[in-house]
Every structure is written in structure tokens, then in C-alpha cells.
Amino acid sequence: MPELRKDPISGRWVIISTNRGKRPSDFGRTIEERRGGFCPFCGGNEATTPPEVLAYRNPNSLPNTAGWSLRVVPNKFPALQIEGGLHKVGEGMFDKMNGVGAHEVLIETPKHDMTIPQMELKDVENMFWGFRDRILDLKKDERFKYIMVFKNHGSAAGASLEHPHSQLIALPIVPLVVQTEMEGASTYYNYKDRCVFCDIIHQEQTMQARLVSENDDFIVICPYAPRFPFETWVLPKHHSSVFEDCRKGEYTNLARALQQTITRMDKVLQDPPYNFIIHNAPLHEEHEVPYYHWHIEIMPKLTKVAGFEWGTGFYINPTPPEDAATFLREIDI
Amino acid sequence: MPELRKDPISGRWVIISTNRGKRPSDFGRTIEERRGGFCPFCGGNEATTPPEVLAYRNPNSLPNTAGWSLRVVPNKFPALQIEGGLHKVGEGMFDKMNGVGAHEVLIETPKHDMTIPQMELKDVENMFWGFRDRILDLKKDERFKYIMVFKNHGSAAGASLEHPHSQLIALPIVPLVVQTEMEGASTYYNYKDRCVFCDIIHQEQTMQARLVSENDDFIVICPYAPRFPFETWVLPKHHSSVFEDCRKGEYTNLARALQQTITRMDKVLQDPPYNFIIHNAPLHEEHEVPYYHWHIEIMPKLTKVAGFEWGTGFYINPTPPEDAATFLREIDI
């Protein structure tokens, strides 16, 4: 059973994989060796993954066979284990609990050689419907306090398989980064009686300098104080703290905004590896909170930029967001 | 002039290099091309760096000529600029100030092909004396609130030059990571009336499982909830919140502890790239605070491990610290 351990100084929880611990010789081997070889996520290879927990499939097809357009399966090598109680316990002065949680993989398409820019718009939209369906199911589990939804694209961004996929991790704790964001947004709201994200949207629409694009429901900006070069956020214009509450039309426009943004990045930065993360309110908050605003943060991983930041937690960004936004906005797509 | 900008949600300050902004084509080029070519840090090339602000040198030698064993120079491409006022100002809802600060490079030895394990113990000790001398000088400047002292070793860890060197950055703000640490330590102290780090030292000495080594003044441990595999901390046994207050004998034992630890890492992990950071109390705190305890955090950068963490700020560590400590403790050095 993996463990969740709390750093007694910062209060940060980390997952420690106690049962598949990596030995020194495991580092340095890249996971790319699977490239070109067998892919468990490809259509036809359904039997090689754990059984699906969700699939959008041809009504005449059977579960765990071909005939799907989107599939969600438990991660074969999960960071957390779905069964068991939390068993919160002290270890001397330290705090830990069982690494209980869900770790699922959303396979975005049965086709191996696809990227988000190459996918059909409806398949990108379905990815968001898939996230929503899984969140609605996972949040019924009272043990969970937060669901992280993210995509790693490219091995430098942490992807271990090439086939287009994203991940969900349901956690029994709220990550420190989310906690800091919630507290900051709440402090702003208490002071101004307005949502900080709504204010950001308003200001970026007025100033234009960091605006990448807009459609009826979403705005894409390079944020004012980005940690990383070409860091880009996609925010709903309509205030909502809950990603899974989107109406159907909104997911189409979200898919359009995300696909266009990654197309822009691919053209400006030559297909960079990237991470995107859905920042969503923790579970068990009041259903809608006025001070928080869900959004997506996209971070291209540009070679050798992150060494210093990784070590220190302090960020030096060599590309002003106004420059990044100009490059992204002006590229032909 | 670079800018310090504050993220309005998290309160995190980031440095934005507005004047030497990186364009898309600047990414992807590694900085390794200097390898084997001319090195400005080598003995004899003193004229190619900015003039030294500190040197330990042969009393008969002239400044900025050969004859030194340690040299500190301003960074030729500083992230911050030393001249000017802070000029704190709003930009609509956002907050910024001039990127005023010092960015210095400490050249640890005139010899190019050296690593900390290969250096003479007295040269490693001098590195710490050099940090101390520069901190004592920089802290006279009322504009500065924090001095970051760190080393990037290897290009994957962010080093742009191979020659052994470390860096000091004096900042007009306290980084969020330091603020979180100070607040956490202070909360613990208010509750327990003891320093959390002193308690950690006591517990690790008792339990032994995460202990790497000890000498008269320092203890080396893998922390209970490490973010990264083989993350290792060096802590003074004697409570102190201020690195620069060490007595002379302490720096010898600190040099011994650091050199041995990196030697262990080099053997166990085959010369990994790494970062180390001195965690020190902010300036202008009361001179000694009972709740904070300065220390060094060393993080080997093990290939491809950090992609997910980099993007999400949430850490999954595949190596339990008890395993890491065992490998490091048991290797022959």
C-alpha cells in the first residue's frame, strides 16, 4: 500500500510508493523503449488493460473490445490504491495515512498517432465529457477530497506512453498548491467582494496585451506572473467554481479553445512537450463558491528551463507573458 | 530592468526578464556548447568576468588576476539588477516592482574539472565562508529581504557552465516557498513550544531508518516526506536560524557532511545532476528565532522523474526515504 505522508514543516502531502520503490538503477532508463512496440491503449488491445470503468462506444460493441472512441481504465501502475480505509496514524511526530485513491487513465482515442491538434473537435470535447463523467462518479466516494485531472504530453513532461491519454487522480487530501490557491482567492474575495479570476478576465479583455484568444464561453491568456515561459490559462468567462457543472455547449467551446491553443503552441514552439492541469474546487466545498473559478493551466516544457526552479521552488521566467501572448496570438492556425 | 510580479491568487512573486526576453527559437538550444571551449571561470581568465566582489587569494596577487582559490563575481547575465529603487506600483489589479537585487556567482575553485567530492575539504569549507562573507555584505542593503544561496550541478539541474560554481541571489521579497516554511515552523512552535527541526533531528537519531550520517555538528537525513527520490537534508544539530552565524569549526564539519553526502550520491546514483539550496531565515527577522532552523536541502535530479510534479506542484515520490537512506548510508566512501 502506498503512503501519503505530510511534511511537518510546510504541511505538504506527498505520495510515497512504498511497494514499487525505485532503486538507484531504475533511474536514467527512459520509458521510451515502448515506442514503436506494443501499445496497450490502441484499439484492438483492450484485453491488455485493466477492465474499463467508462467507455464511449458503438452501442453494438461489447465492453473491453474494439468499437470505442474514448475509454477510461484504472492505471495499471497506480500511484494510489482504490481499496481500503485511510487509517490515519502518527509515526512519532509525523503524520501519514494509507495511499488510498483512484488513479485512472483516460484514453482519448483508439488511434495511436494522434495529438490534440490532429483530433476531431468532437473527440477533444468527449475528453472533457469523460473527465466530467468520471468526476461525478468518483466524488460519490466520501474518502476523496480532491480530484486532479491532468495530461502529460511527451516524455519530457512525464508521459510514459505515447498514445494520447490523460489522467485522473482522486485524493483523500487537498494538495498544498490547491489549498494555497483557494486561500488566496478567498482572501481576495473577502477584501474586494469579487472573484479574483473574474477580475483577471475583465482586466485582460481590457488590456489585450496578454490575450491569446476568445470565444463565446472561454478566454485564453498568458497570466500576468507566469512561472514558466509560454504558460497559458484557459478560463470560462461565466463564473463557476465547478468544472463538472459545464453545460453541453460549453464543452464544445472549451474543446475549441484548448485545441486551438495547443495548435498555436505546436506552431510557435515546434511541438513542445507540455502538461495541462484542470484547476477545480475541492470536493465537499459548498457546491458553488463565489470566490473560486475553475480553469485549465497549460505549461509547455521547454528544454533545460526548469532546473533552477525545480530545485528552489522559486521562478525566473525568461519570457514576458506579453511576448508569449503576442507570438501565440499572431501565429496563423 | 527585469520585473518582479506577484500572482494575485497565490501571492507568489516571479522574476520576469523583460529585457533579455527569450524568443521561441531560443528554447531547445542547450547551453552545453561551451563545453570544451573557453571557460570564463578558469584561473587566468579573470579579465573576462565582471570585477570580483570577493576573492580568497594569495596576498601577493592583484584583484582580478590569477592567484585565487575562491572568487565571487556579479553574474554576467543577472536575473536581477543591482542599481535602482524598488518602485512598487500597481498595474490595474496587479502588483509589481523593479527587479532590483544582486545576482552573484561564487567560483569554487580555479580548476575546471572538479566536483565537490574531488575538491580539497578546505576548498569546500571556503565555499561556505564565501557564502557567509557575501551574505554579511549583502544584508547591509536595506532593500533586500532574502538571500537565496544555491548550487546547480549539471545541465539537467540548470547549470549553464560546467566549471564548479554556486550562486547567490539577494531579493527584495521573501519567496513563497520560504514564507510557507517559516509559517509552518512558527505554527508548530506555537503549539509545541519546540523547534520542529530540532524535533525532527531528535526523532531521526532515535529511529535511525532515515539517517545517512552524523558528525559532531551536523546530521544528514532523508526527510520523512521528501518530494523527490534521494532528497537529502543536512541540518546543524545545534539550534540556529542563521546560517552566517556558524562558528569556524562548524563550517569544517558542514563541508565534511556535504562533501561526504555528494560522494555517496555520486556512487549510488552515478554522478547525478543535483541542486542544493541553503534554507536560511529571511533578513530583518529578529536576529535569532527559536522556531526556525537553517539547513541545506540537496536534490539529485533523476531523469524524467519530475515531469508530472513540475506541472502539477503535487509530488509522487517513487523511492521511500528509508530505502534512499539505506543506499546512501551503506555505500563505501
Greatest interface and its participating residue counts = A-B, 91 and 91 residues
Reported CATH architecture of the largest domain in chain A: 2-Layer Sandwich
- CATH C-level of the largest domain in chain A: Alpha Beta
Looking at the structure, what is the overall shape of chain A?
globular
Relevant CATH superfamily of the largest domain in chain A: HIT-like
Instruction: Count helical runs of chain A.
Output: 6
Which class best fits the helix and strand makeup of chain A? alpha+beta
Using the CA coordinates, give the radius of gyration of chain A.
20 Å
What is the domain total for the residues of chain A?
2
Cofactor (chains A, B): Zn(2+)
Family (chains A, B): Belongs to the galactose-1-phosphate uridylyltransferase type 1 family.
Organism (chains A, B): Vecturithrix granuli
Enzyme class (chains A, B): transferase
